[in-house]
Amino acid sequence: MLKVQNITKSYGDLKAVDNLSFEVKEGEVFGLLGVNGAGKTTTFRIIMGLLEADDGTVTLDGKPIDYNMTDKIGFLTEERSLLLKMTVFDQVMYYGVLKGMNKIEVERELDKWLKRFEIEEYKHRKIKELSKGNQQKIQFITAIINNPKLLILDEPFAGLDPMNVEMFMDTIREVERNGSIIIFSSHRMEHVELFCEKLVVLVRGQAVLEGNLKDIKKNYRRKNIIINGKVDKEELLKIEGVLEVNKKKNETEVKIQDDSCVDKVFEYITKCKNITKFVVEEPSLNEIFVSKVGESYDKQI
Full-prediction pTM beyond 0.90? Predict the structure, then answer.
């Protein structure tokens, strides 16, 4: 288990991380989210032992993370960190040996993943000759080559087309099933919803939202009603508790303050014609994220 307990880190007067705590179990994907500058990168560096926290502790299986533990960690950075003049083989071999693997182990794992990602022909090609998407595949391979106990993924789908995103998703789920601890960060909330059962949202180093994703959605009072049929936008906006009405191609989305508005909206649509759909939906994680981050910034101004 990874335990992050009350970590704080400042750079001069800037508090990058402020009393942050969370736990991630084996075989669990945890979402660490926030806008740019929220403190995610600093948190990653503290977890990996690259930075020392001013206060608080980080442990993996009850032990502090130091150079004796780094061989058990894999990290996919948001920025590509490949050496473009090296070949794929030399690049992955370099990272694998750094992780304490012997050359035979590294090549065996490399061949497996090159085949899995359908890029076997690039084994002895220079990194600079690869497309951005294939470079991202190589960077991903360097992160998982050592079958890490802890895997940190920062924007893993950057530069990938939909087919390769699906391939990466399958691989992440496989790593999860094999018992790795995974920390997942992305600005694409729909990707977070696919993987993460628990998450924390950072604003200026502080956790402004945390917990189980299902509970977060359930406890968020605002809901959406999806209606298919002929309704009047202005009449819907007159209903107490209706916040917003958006006309889409074939449907109308009604954003409401809370569940108490559902019956009022339903009462209105019973008077309308050709209603074929009336569904109350939980808000997306993206809506909750935008709302909570916005509220936190407003409070700090």
Answer: no
